Amino acid sequence: MTAIGTLRNTSKDTLHEVLTRLQTEGAALGHFNVADHVLLKAVIAAASETKFPVFVGASEGEREFFGARQLAALVKSLRQESDVPIFLNADHTHSLAKAIEAAKAGFDSVGIDFSAVPFDQNVTRTKEAVQVVKAINPAILVEGEIGDIGTGSEIHESAQADFSKLTTPQEGRQFVEATGIDILAPSVGNRHGMLKSMVEGKAKKHLDIERIGQIKQATGVFLTLHGGSGTDDEHFRKAINSGINVIHINTELRVAWRESLTDSLARDSNEVVPYKILRPVVESVKQVVSARLRLFHGESVRPSAVGTVA
Ligand code: G3H
Ligand code: ZN
Question: How far does the centroid of ligand 2 lie from the alpha carbon of residue 55, in Å?
């Protein structure tokens, strides 16, 4: 397992190098979405606290709110002061134009997501995106997605994904070979968002661990697990051991952000100083991120730190 300090002073390492090293160590890179500076501060604080590398992610909507170039500039600045690696991903990119924008802004990776269109079109459009992004910067890693994992890092009333469309190892291999992607995001029982019962800690997501192992063997590329919020801890560990290299968590952070902001505002209705209101929000989200990072790196986590996400 990764010892604390192993990854210190390696912030010059590339994303590919860090993913390769973590794979050898039986760990996964935690990917956490940010939509504002509070969330970004929390993710960086968790990396600094745990000494584990982090992957900061922003979907098209999050990039639009934050500003893709502004987020990239902030991450670049934070990286210069960090003793742990920090990477930036253009998560769930649905158009070539947005992929180009992210590549030119300095993102370390682009997650191409044409999973909603038929397989053949997904192959054609993802392949084109890989070529265009790599022409801008060959060092950028490109992720492709297949299968249905539902949409929306939100609290859902009912399950969003169609589990009849789980990725097969054959599809995975065909997709990787035809597109030239560096990272594959398959559908393996994962799904975006959380049910209310998951937010309350009464239910957990479960993964098809055997399928993950088969897809890894068939493709040989890095694998990303989307929709990580609310997943059973043991399934996370087994998924990493079976070949998952990156784990995306968003809804858990959003729930912590909202709950702690609500509490903070309610504490004193006369408080108007933003940094006094927002400081506990950063702390609360940081605790969620740190607990997930420790789990992804094989450290035992206090039972109170996960299970409920507030
Ligand atoms: O790309 C983002 C993730 O897949 C997050 O999913 O909201 O279920 O954690 P989640
Ligand atoms: Zn996702």
Answer: 13
Which amino acid residue places its CA nearest to atom 2 of ligand 1?
248
* Ligand number with the minimum distance to the CA of 56: 1
CA of 268 to the centre of ligand 2 (A): 36
Ligand 1, atom 8, residue with closest C-alpha: 227
Between the CA of 92 and the centroid of ligand 2 the distance, in Å, is 6
HEC readout, the chain: CCCCCCCCCCCCCCHHHHHHHHHHHCCCEEEEECCCHHHHHHHHHHHHHHCCCEEEEECHHHHHHHCHHHHHHHHHHHHHCCCCCEEEEEEEECCHHHHHHHHHHCCCEEEECCCCCCHHHHHHHHHHHHHHHHHHCCCCEEEEECCCCCCCCCEECCCCCCHHHCCCHHHHHHHHHHHCCCEEECCCCCCCCEEHHHHCCCCCECCCHHHHHHHHHHHCCEEEECCCCCECHHHHHHHHHHCEEEEEECHHHHHHHHHHHHHHHHHCCCCCCHHHHHHHHHHHHHHHHHHHHHHHCCCCCCHHHCCCCC
Q: What is the pLDDT of residues 202-255, one digit of tens each?
A: 999 999 999 999 999 999 999 999 999 999 999 999 999 999 999 999 999 999
